[in-house]
Write a structure and sequence with these properties.
alpha/beta, OB fold (Dihydrolipoamide Acetyltransferase, E2P), Rossmann fold, Ribonucleotide Reductase Protein R1, domain 1, 3 domains, 5-stranded mixed barrel, two-stranded antiparallel ribbon, 13 strands, about 20% helix, about 25% strand, binds guanosine-5'-triphosphate, binds magnesium ion, binds zinc ion
Length: about 300
């Protein structure tokens, strides 16, 4: 029996079959060993093979995982070796961000983007809570547009509580399987509920998310928004550490760099100190935004502090 993982708690999973039957499932011991180094051997979005557990009703065992088409993976910080797969087999990954309460940094966005690039996943930014920006909205927009002009990122601006900017985003993601990721309290669950009124994810109270470590959504879960549209809501994350990207590969995942780096004098240019570096020249002339270059260096140096 085959199915798709729709919820992951770390110790047990929810798996839905093509006919729509939902199973509660656990992994077999062997499977754990097969996927070294991730805190979750099975991720939401995984296609798995199940074996019915004769001892309990509606309970099954996951006996194998189909190869993933793609996935979003991160680590919490540089001192941990623990990696976490947020979700797999995606059509697009949406970073939900906000400028204030809480602030999403450019460094966080750029790490997410590198991961999407490395795994060939379409990246979308939904900048939520624009109702809190007042007169500064126009300035914020023009800055963001400038920084990400050539970064292969599709950007939407909106407010989940005021139901602003939702139509375009909804049309863009219709019929797709998307992940919503971002810091705790940016409004991922609120956005999902605002887009589709048949969904009912738990949303945090205003006061809750300011408290450290307070997450309203505690498990990744895939919701069926309508025929074919699936939304994976995830718990808020503080950091987005890039994993499985070698230093010498990193420049490929910055589209602005990729376009011109063959013009660097040295084919193994790191774009840090080399003479006749096309990337450094582009940063100097303003063709590559310095914020993007800063993130490149920061990821290369394995820094946890974001701009
Ligand atoms: N002003 C404003 N508040 C919003 C908006 N969207 C969500 N909120 C509020 O932000 C708070 C957090 O919303 P949630 O949807 O629980 O945030 P989340 O990203 O799902 O958080 P976690 O589940 O902890 O990761 C709630 O009080 C929402 O009402 C918005 O567009 N504008
Ligand atoms: Mg939530
Ligand atoms: Zn260079």
């Amino acid at each position: 029996m085959e199915g798709t993982v729709t919820k992951s708690t770390g110790s047990w999973y929810q798996v839905e079959t093509a006919e729509g039957k939902v199973w509660k499932a656990r992994t077999r011991g062997k499977l754990r060993l097969a996927q070294l180094n991730t805190s979750n051997p099975v991720a939401v979005g995984d296609r798995v093979t199940l074996e019915i557990d004769p001892n309990y009703e509606d309970t099954a065992r996951i006996i194998s995982i189909e190869d993933r088409e793609n996935w979003i993976i991160r680590k919490a910080n540089k001192s941990t070796s623990k990696r976490q797969i947020l979700a797999s087999n995606l059509d697009a990954a949406v970073l939900v961000g906000s400028i204030v309460s809480p602030r999403t940094s450019l460094g966080f966005i750029d790490r997410f983007l590198v991961t999407c690039q490395a795994h060939h996943i379409k990246a979308i930014l939904f900048l939520n809570k624009i109702d809190l920006l007042g007169d500064s909205l126009a300035e914020v927009k023009s800055q963001i547009e400038h920084i990400y002009e050539h970064a292969e990122l599709t950007i939407f601006y909106g407010s989940a509580t005021n139901k602003q900017g939702l139509d375009d985003f909804k049309a863009h993601t219709y019929g797709k399987r998307i992940l919503l990721a971002g810091h705790s309290g940016v409004g991922k669950s609120t956005l999902m509920n605002a887009l589709y009124d048949n969904l009912n994810a738990r949303v945090g109270a205003i006061s809750e998310y300011h408290q450290k470590g307070k997450h309203t959504t505690t498990f990744a879960e895939m919701f069926t928004a309508d025929e074919g549209t699936r939304i994976i809501d995830t718990p808020g994350i503080r950091d987005f550490g890039v994993v499985d990207v070698e230093d010498h590969e990193l420049h490929q995942y910055f589209p602005e760099f990729r376009r011109i780096m063959s013009e660097c004098k040295f084919s193994n240019c790191t774009h840090i100190h080399e003479p006749d570096c096309a990337v450094l020249k582009a940063v100097e002339s303003g063709d590559i935004p310095e914020e993007r270059y800063y993130s490149y260096r920061s990821i290369l140096n394995d820094e946890d502090i974001y701009n």
